[in-house]
From TrEMBL:
GO annotation terms (biological process): protoporphyrinogen IX biosynthetic process
Name the UniProt record assigns to this protein: Glutamate-1-semialdehyde 2,1-aminomutase
Enzyme class: isomerase
Record bears the keyword Cytoplasm: yes
NCBIfam families, per database record: hemL, PRK00062.1
Keyword Ion transport in record: no
Biological pathway: Porphyrin-containing compound metabolism; protoporphyrin-IX biosynthesis; 5-aminolevulinate from L-glutamyl-tRNA(Glu): step 2/2
The EC number(s) this enzyme carries: 5.4.3.8
Family label: Belongs to the class-III pyridoxal-phosphate-dependent aminotransferase family. HemL subfamily.
Molecular-function annotations in GO: glutamate-1-semialdehyde 2,1-aminomutase activity; pyridoxal phosphate binding; transaminase activity
Amino acid sequence: MNHEASAALFARSLDVTPGGVNSPVRAYGSVGGTPPFAASAKGPYLTDVDGNEYVDLVSGWGPMLLGHAHPAVVAAVQDAAARGLSFGAPTPAETQLAELVVERIAPIEQVRLVSTGTEATMTALRLARGYTGRDLIVKFAGCYHGHSDGLLAAAGSGLATLALPGSAGVPEAITSQTIVVPFNDLEAVRAAFVEHPGEIAAVITEASPANMGVVPPEPGFNRALAELCSAEGALLVCDEVLTGFRTGPAGWWGEEQKSETSGGWQADLYTYGKVIGGGMPVAALGGSREIMSHLAPQGPVYQAGTLSGNPVAVAAGIATLALADADVYARVDAAAERIRTATSEALTAAGVAHSVQNVGNLFSFTFGDGAALGWTGTGGGPRDEDEVKRQEAWRYPPFFAAMLDAGVNLPPSVFEAWFVSAAHDDAAIERVLAALPAATRAAADA
Ligand code: PMP
C-alpha cells in the first residue's frame, strides 16, 4: 500500500503543527508509521490522499453512527449552510434538538447545547459545584472526560486522597479539588465521602468507560453510585459523550434501565457529544429543570459560547438523531457483534490470549492471559485501569499495521474502542474478516 502523499503531507504538517496533528492520537504515536491523511469518506469506507480505501472502524471516533456522508445528513447541512453559518441569536433548530434529547432520556427536562464534550463535562461540574456549594469532584482513573484542567488529574498516592496534575500546565491547586479512585470500586468512592464529609459536589463517571478500552461497569455499579451520591447530597454526572445515542437511543443509561440488576437509577446530569452532532461540533448537558435552572442567564452559574447551538452543526445532529431508529441500532449492534466475535475467534485460532469486552456495540480487545495477569472483571477481562495496563500491549501495533495494510482502519491505540456504523454492510464486514488471519498471526509473532 502506497502512503507517499500522506508521508509528504505529514512532513509538511510537522513543520507548522505540533506533532503534525490537531489531536494527539491521530499522530500514530503508539502504533508507529505514517497516519493516512483523509481525503473523503462514504458509508463504511474512508479514502486517503493516496487513493487507498479502508473499511473504517474509527467512525470519526464515534459520531458517524449512520456511516460517513449520509445523504440526508449532508443535505440537512447544505440546506442550513445556505441559510447562514452563524447568527448569535436563538434558532428553532436548537429547540428541536433539545426536544429530541428530552424525548429520549426520561430524567432530562432541560438541555444546554455546547460545541465539544470537553465543554459539556466542564460545565456540568461547574453547575454541580454552583448547585451544591461544594468544591470537590470524584472521578475514576482511566475515565476520560475531555481536557479541562480539573479532569486532567492522576490518582494521588493513597485511596481517596487529592489528585495530582495529569498534564504539564495543570496547576496542583486545581487538581487538588479532584479525587481519583479506581473504576468499579464502590468502596473507594465511599471512602472519599468519609474522608471529605460535606465537601464533594459531584461524582463523574463514563456511563460505561470506553477510553481505557471498554471496561463495563459491574452490574448495579452505576445504580449504587447514584444511591450513594443522593445519600451524600452530591450530584452524579453521567458522561455519555461516547455512549450517548450510540449504544442505544437513550445511551448506556437507557440500556441499563432494561435490566433488573443494573436498572432503576438516574443521574443528576448527563453529558453528550459525538453522535448528537452527527460529525459536526455539537455537545450538550442535560438534567432536571431544577438543577439546570442554575445556569446563566436564569441562574448564577456562568456558561456561554459564540458557536453554541451553531445552526449548521445542529442541523447535522437533528438529521442524525431523526434517522437513528430501532433498525439503525439493530444494524450497528449486529455488525459490531460479527466483527467482535470473528476477531476474537481469529485471535484464539492464532494462539493469541486475549479478552474482548463490550457494552452494546462498543468493544475492544485486551491482550494476554487474564488469569496470569490478574484481571478480575466479571467477564474475565480487566475491571479497572490498573488491570487494563497489565496486558501484552506490544501485540497491538503489528496487528494494527497488518489490518491497515489489508485496508482496515482500526483505532491507532489498544486503549480505544472500535466504532461500527449502520453502513457497515456484509461487503465491508467481509473485508474486515478477510484481513484477520494475517493480522492475528502478526499479533502472535510479536
Ligand atoms: N467524555 C468522553 C466520555 C469522551 O469520550 C470524550 C472524547 N473522546 C470527551 C468527554 C471529550 O469530548 P471532546 O473531545 O468533544 O472534547
